[in-house]
């Protein structure tokens, strides 16, 4: 009799534990479904339809994807090269800068470190405000612009340069502004990871023959904070591919002048909210999602935990 009762009790305990776990996961599951899973599913569905926000969506099969691959010359001539250049400049560049700043801050006292970290993090919080006020003032295309004023005063130019309307300068300015505001949540994660590394690891490494700070970073710091490095890499990738508001905010137009600063997110906004071709905009969104997923897998290959 006892051997039959015990499995039932064990099953009852396991059932209660499973019920408790389900209750704890319900809020996360609900939020994940509402803000991530359902919007992605809707976007994938709309990508196979023609939808103009007036009439109900009508099934169009692979037409939107065929159009993207064969007829959208602006996408392959301007948008995709701009996005890749921007992402390769901002993603690795911002990632390296974030790590180096986090490592340097970890070497100083707590009080100054907190103040400096807050100052570095602030631009990522108020990036739109800074872009609209500070950077547009710096690169304004008249004599009131700070850069133009300096160049005119030094007689380096005769007439003001339209920096934000010129295809020659717009992308470079976008990269500069993005690197300036690259200290986001990934930077804070890296700083926390460095500060929580066991100091005894460094002492043991120096006893075993570690010679300098560079070896300390390569052999101790980075391997000890791989989860934070992975999180920072994913955030840098997502931010680089989704940071399309900078070009529009600087130039004041979508599309940007001669598509010189046009990124995939701007292309999506152009077709979705200006031309009202929501089906095609959804197809471009799905393409962007696939690109981000591929680069995120690459980041996991480098920094993910291996069994």
Secondary structure topology:
Elements: H1 2-46, E1 49-50, E2 58-59, H2 63-70, H3 73-105, H4 110-125, H5 127-138, H6 146-153, H7 170-180, H8 185-195, H9 199-207, H10 213-224, H11 226-242, H12 245-251, H13 264-274, H14 278-303
Antiparallel strand pairs: 1-2
Helix pairs in contact: 1-14, 2-14, 3-7, 3-8, 3-11, 5-12, 7-12, 8-11, 11-14, 13-14
Tag the structure with descriptive keywords:
MetI-like fold, flat, single chain, 307 residues, two-stranded antiparallel sheet
Overview of this structure, please?
By secondary structure, the chain is mainly alpha-helical. The protein has one domain: MetI-like fold, CATH 1.10.3720.10. Helix content is 74%, strand content 1%. It is flat and about 65 Å long.
CATH superfamily grouping: MetI-like
Largest sheet: 2 strands, antiparallel
- Overall outline: flat
Name the poorly predicted regions.
none
User: What is the beta-strand fraction?
Assistant: under 5%
Named CATH architecture? Orthogonal Bundle
Give, in spatial order, the strands making up the sheet with the most strands. 1-2
Order of helices and strands: HEEHHHHHHHHHHHHH
Write a concise synopsis of the structure shown.
It is built from 14 helices and 2 strands; from the N terminus they run H-E-E-H-H-H-H-H-H-H-H-H-H-H-H-H.
């Amino acid at each position: 009799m006892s051997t039959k009762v015990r499995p039932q009790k064990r099953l009852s305990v396991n059932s209660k534990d499973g019920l408790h776990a389900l209750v704890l996961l319900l809020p996360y599951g609900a939020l994940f479904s509402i803000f991530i899973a359902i919007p992605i599913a809707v976007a994938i569905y709309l990508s196979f339809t023609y939808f103009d926000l007036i009439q109900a969506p009508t099934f169009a099969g692979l037409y939107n994807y065929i159009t993207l691959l064969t007829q959208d010359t602006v996408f392959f001539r301007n948008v995709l090269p701009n996005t890749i250049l921007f992402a390769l400049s901002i993603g690795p560049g911002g990632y390296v800068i974030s790590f180096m700043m986090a490592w340097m801050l970890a070497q100083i006292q707590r009080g100054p470190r907190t103040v400096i970290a807050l100052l570095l993090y602030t631009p990522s919080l108020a990036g739109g405000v800074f872009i609209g006020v500070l950077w547009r003032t710096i690169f304004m295309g008249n004599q009131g612009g700070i850069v133009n004023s300096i160049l005119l005063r030094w007689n380096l130019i005769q007439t003001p340069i339209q920096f934000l309307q010129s295809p020659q300068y717009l992308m470079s300015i976008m990269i500069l502004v993005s690197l300036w505001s690259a200290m986001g949540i990934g930077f804070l994660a890296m700083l926390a990871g460095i500060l929580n590394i066991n100091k005894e690891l460094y002492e043991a490494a120096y006893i075993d023959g570690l010679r300098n700070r560079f070896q300390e970073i390569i052999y101790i710091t980075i391997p000890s904070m791989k989860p934070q490095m992975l999180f920072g890499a994913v955030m840098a990738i997502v931010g680089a591919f989704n940071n399309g508001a900078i070009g529009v905010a600087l130039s004041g137009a979508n599309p940007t002048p001669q598509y010189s600063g046009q990124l995939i997110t701007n292309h999506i906004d152009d077709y979705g909210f200006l031309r009202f071709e929501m089906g095609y905009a959804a197809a471009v969104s799905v393409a962007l999602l696939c690109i981000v997923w591929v680069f995120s897998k690459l980041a996991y290959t480098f920094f993910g935990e291996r069994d």
